[in-house]
Amino acid sequence: MFTGIVQDIGSVVSLSKIGNAAKIAIRTQMDLSAVHIGDSIACNGVCLTIESMEGAILHFHAMEETLSRSNLGLSHGGSPINLEPALRMGDPLGGHLVSGHIDCTAPIIAIGRKGDDRVLDIALPPALRELVIMKGSIAINGVSLTISRLERDSFGVNIIPHTWSHTNLAALKTGDVVNLEADPVGRYILRHLQLKEQSDGDSHATMEHLAQAGFL
Fold first, then answer.
1. Which of 106, 114, 120, 136 has the fewest CB atoms within 10 Å of its CB?
2. Which H or E run includes 38?
3. Which one, of 76, 63, 136, 134, lies nearest residue 102 by Cα?
4. pTM
5. What residues does 12 pair with on adjacent strands?
């Protein structure tokens, strides 16, 4: 598990396709004294396992599923990558619980400003509509953010200056594709309600009731 609090903006050294999979090497400035081969690192929000280490360069294997669901396959030499080591027992939960399992990608619709903050407008894929709510949490390229605007086909987030300057969100342009992971808690609630609807049509907690309450 992760928290969506990025620790470093790494840089892709190389990405080599192997069939439908890929080997990715990323250079980091993180303190690696407590990081070992086999540990999990969130790379743009994608949970990857360290296969080997060469000084400050971490090597990962990305499966076909990972490449098809995330923007890692679009990376190239020099691409900035948000990095976060796995959450350890006792660490502060500064953002929200992030699993590192990307739901989908979506393009940036617009980038604006509101005072000192940046505002990102992002397309909302149909598969994610039931998993996002106003003021709810969402991970964008592995960054824990709060939804400040929600429409049927898009949503918006406001980003404070510190987050903007300490993540790769500052490198985004309109049309760029970002990784999205909805709050895992919502996924479990949705699944529970779907099963309840299938097994008990008279359930007190139905998808219709949840929508009427403003959660969908």
1. 114
2. none
3. 63
4. 0.87
5. 26
Task: Please name the residue that has the structure tokens 């439908």.
Answer: 20
pLDDT in tens, the chain (216 residues): 999 999 999 999 999 999 999 999 999 999 999 999 999 999 999 999 999 999 999 999 999 999 999 999 999 999 999 999 999 888 888 889 999 999 999 999 999 999 999 999 999 999 899 899 999 999 999 999 999 999 999 999 999 999 999 999 999 999 999 999 999 877 777 776 777 777 776 555 555 665 665 555
Residue for token pair 């990095």: 83
> Quick one: which of 69, 10, 16 has its CA closest to 35?
10
Residue 62 backbone dihedrals phi, psi, to 5 degrees: -110, 125
Q: Amino acid letter at 36?
A: H
CA–CA dist 173, 145 (Å, integer): 18
- The CATH code belonging to domain 8-85 is 2.40.30.20
Q: Tell me how far apart the alpha carbons of residues 37 and 49 are, in angstroms, rounded to a whole number.
A: 8
Task: Please give the torsion angle defined by the CA atoms of residues 138, 186, 93 and 69, in that order, rounded to the nearest 10 degrees.
Answer: -50
Sign, Cα dihedral of 160, 162, 163, 168: positive
Domain 104-188 fold is Elongation Factor Tu (Ef-tu); domain 3 (2.40.30)
